[in-house]
Amino acid sequence: MADGKFLADSTKDDNDVEASEGTAHLISHDPWYQVGFVLTTGVNSAYVLGYSGIIMVPLGWIAGTLGLIVAAIFSLYANFLLARLHQTGGKRHIRYRDLAGHIYGRKMYYLTWALQYINLFMINTGYIILAGQALKAIYTSYSSETMLKLPYCIIIAGIVCGVFAFGIPYLSALRLWLGVSTFLSLVYIIVALWLSIKNGINSPARDYGIQGSTTTKVFSSIGAAANLVFAYNTGMLPEIQATVKRPYIKNTQKALAFQFTVGSVLLYAVTFAGYWAYGSSTASYLLNSVQGPKWVKTMANAAAFLQTVIALHIFASPMYEYLDTRLGRSNESMYSVYNWSVRLVGRGTYLTINTFVAALLPFLGDFMNLTGAISTFPLTFVLANHMYIKVKGKKLNALQKSWHWANVWVFFLLSVAAAAAALRFIILDSKTYSIFADL
C-alpha cells in the first residue's frame, strides 16, 4: 500500500535552500534529462551483459521474469521516497550520509557512509573486472597464446580508468561523455542482442532447467535476488540529485521515471534474448557465449571496455568528491596545479586499490551478489523506507506505516540471507580458483 501522495511534489521544492555541507564539486547545474542519462548509464553499463547468466540462469523463466519486474517496481518506489527526502529540515542533503546523519544522528552518519562506500568500492571493482574481461576477450579472439592473462588486462583497465578520472573533475562535467556512453552501450547491447537471436534461431533445443543440488539452487536463487536489486540501483541517489537544477525533487522524479522506463528497455531485451539463446549454459559475460564475426565481437568488447571507464567514473564520484573537498583548495579552480595534483594522488590511490582487489579476486558474479546484499539492500530499501517513516511518520496513516515497516523488515531479512549466500559462493570460488586467477 503506497503513500497516497507518492507522486506529489514537495511544496518546498522551489525554495532557495542551502546544501547540507560545502562541496568542491558543482551542484544544481544539470537538467533533468542529463541526470536521467547518468542513471541510465548505470542501468545499461556493461554489467547488463551479465544478467542473463547471473539472474535468469539461477531463477529460470518464470521467477527470473517476475523478479526483474517486481524488483523494478520496488526499486522505483524506494528511489522516489529517497528523492522526496532530499529537502529535509530546511536543507538540501547532497550526500546520503548527510541525510542519514540529519535524521538519526552522528553514528548513523558514519554507518551510512561506510555502507555506501563499501557499495561503491565493490561496484567499481566489478567495473574494472568487466573491463579486464572485455580486453581479455579481444586478445583471445586473435591469439591462442596465454601471455596476456586476465590480471594483466585488469591492470591495463585500471590505468585507463585512472587517466579518465584525472581529466573529469566532477559528475556534471561528464556532459558529452554521457552521449558517448549511450552510443557505446547501444553498440554492445545491439551486437549481443543480434548475435543471441541469430544463434538461438540456428541452435537446437536449449536446456532451461536450473542446475545443481537443492542446496545450490536455494543459495543461487538468493544470490540472484541480490543481483536483481543491484541491476536498478545506484546507492548514491542523493549525490546524483545534488547535481540537478531546481525544482530538485520534481526533476529527479522525471529522471527516475526515464531510467525505469526508456532506460530499462534494452536491459530486458538483452537479458531475455541471451537466456533464450543459450539457456542454462549462458556465461556470466554474455559476449563469451555469442558466436559471430570476429570483428563484430571485437567491436562489442571494445565498446564494453570504453563504456565501463565512463560508468566507473559515475560510481566513483562520491569518493572523488570527498577527496577533492577535504584535500583540495576551494579558492582555486578545479584545474589549478594544486587541485590537479590532489586528483592525481587521491584518485590514483583509490583506483590502485580497486585494481589490486579486482586482479586478486576476479569473481564478478560473486562481487555483484555481495554488493547487493550488504549495501544495496540496506541503502535502497531498508534505510529509505525507515527514513521516510521517521520524517513523514506523523502524516502517514496506520496502513501506510505498516506498509513501510513491512518493507524495512522484509528487505532486511533478504539482505542477511543474500549476504550469507554471497559469502558461500566467494568461499567456494576461492577454493576452486587461485588468487590472481586467469578466468
Automatic annotation (TrEMBL):
UniProt xrefs under InterPro entries: AA_transpt_TM
Any single Gene Ontology cellular-component annotation: membrane
Keyword annotations of the record: Amino-acid transport, Membrane, Transmembrane, Transmembrane helix, Transport
Cellular compartments annotated: Membrane
Primary localization: membrane
Transmembrane segments: 32-49, 61-82, 117-138, 150-170, 176-197, 255-278, 298-323, 344-364, 370-388, 408-427
All residue ranges annotated as the Amino acid transporter transmembrane domain in the record: 32-427
Keyword Transmembrane helix assigned: yes
Keyword Plastid included in the entry's annotation: no
GO biological process terms on file: amino acid transport
PANTHER family per UniProt: OS05G0424000 PROTEIN-RELATED
UniProt-recorded name of the protein: Amino acid transporter transmembrane domain-containing protein
Species, as recorded: Taxus chinensis (Chinese yew)
